[in-house]
Amino acid sequence: xxxxxxxxxxxxxxxxxxxxxxxxQFGGKLYLEFGGKLFDDYHASRVLxxxxxxxxxxxxxQMKDQAEIIIAINxxxxxKPKTRGDLGIRYxxxxxxxxxxxxxxxxxxxxxxxxxxxxxxxxxxFEQHLASLGVRTYRHYLIDGYPTNLDxxxxxxxxxxxxxxxxxxxxVVVTAPGPGSGKMATCLSQLYNENRRGNQAGYAKFxxxxxxxxxxxxxxxxxxxxxxxxxxxxxxxxxFHLEAYGKTTVNYxxxxxxxPVLNAMFQRIQGASPYxxxxxxxxxxxxxxxxxxxxxxxxxxxxxxxxYYAGMADRTxxxxxxxxxRKLEIVMQQAGVTPEICPAVSACLQKAxxxxxxxxxxxxxxxxxxxxxxxxxxxxxxxxLLNALKAMAGIDHKxxxxxxxxxxxxxxxxxxxxGHRNPRLHSDEVLIALAISGLTxxxxxxxxxxxxxxxxxxxxxxxxxxxxxxxxxxxxxxxxTCQPRYEVKKLYHK
Length: 494
Description:
This protein has helices spanning 8-25, 42-47, 55-61, 75-79, 91-104, 121-132, 150-153, 183-196, 219-227, 239-245, 253-270, 278-281, 293-317, 322-335, 343-355, 380-393, 404-416, 427-437, 442-448, 467-475, and strands at 30-34, 67-74, 83-84, 89-90, 108-117, 137-141, 171-175, 202-206, 235-237, 250-252, 359-363, 369-373, 458-461, 479-482. It has 494 residues and is an alpha/beta fold.
């Protein structure tokens, strides 16, 4: 049964109020570095049950008349180019996507800034493309010795050389397609150039994780470490906050390491630093909206397990190294996580052993477990999806909803005309077949109505499933994990 551990409405109220207070603190102008995902934060919704994936966007909408958005993109990431792993699109494409999404919500996107610009041809081409679309662009340049060469950084030849971004509203949200895009540097540049113009402005940072007022080894914070295992992020006690206030708070290594430099920059730019610690810079109020800690702990342990299996599978795919997996194993130990916490794992492996072929299992919302096996016409993922839908609709799993007369022509088309070696239907193909069957079979139509009921369920497979199947499951909101091995022994897999 789904249990709520997080009060989303309370979060929206307290978070927006905290940001308003910070705007007032700096005389009515705040540059807010926005880390993480603004409108599709599924990690947060998994570890904090009750947190809506678009919560941060909804919070901004409460302040949309005060807010404008700057999107930062590293010019080097355009030249490479760099790709978002979760969406499979280049960073510059994601900038366009972000602009469209923000505008669809009624939020004002003021401009795009190209950071670490040094005349990269691809960046200049993108700049021209944005201009043709009516989007204002600015350039921020690579500064030698950043972030430690303070004499150069805080000078007219450093931050002063950057374009001054024209803004009109009291809250300026600086976001980006991904890490390393230059969000913080953009904020610092604006503070310098605002100060040069005699304008008062401040800086704050909005990161959901780690949650500063939860214990260091709390499963929610450990889940963040698991999620960023490939970035070498490590949660740690904020030593500056402890020294200044005698209170223990949690931050992460990069913010702690950079704080002395930031503090010195604030002093040089504005004459004094408004903050005594990295924790002071943050405005995150998520910890105050947790209403059932045990629920959030259990959800976070499940997320750690998912990240572990994802890391194991990525190593098998050649997408990460042993160090990432070792870090995930350490996080597992710290959180007391074993595969046994997910009933789908043991059920899946048992079914695979019984059948001698790839299999899958899924935990349904009521806690029951269904399995799916490989057959001559259906892959394990397609069979599991069908069986889960039948169970949700109260239909006997032995009942054939899709006749062979529908499946077999699709299989022949795949192998005879489309160049596929595997005749078995993928999950998306079986849903299309189910929809066709629903025209003549009321039960097939009824089963389709259960698709939304599978959102949030956990599924595990005895082998790494195909990209098509994994994408379909994610589209349905089903959490997928796999044993780190392929069904067949070959070098190239898709």
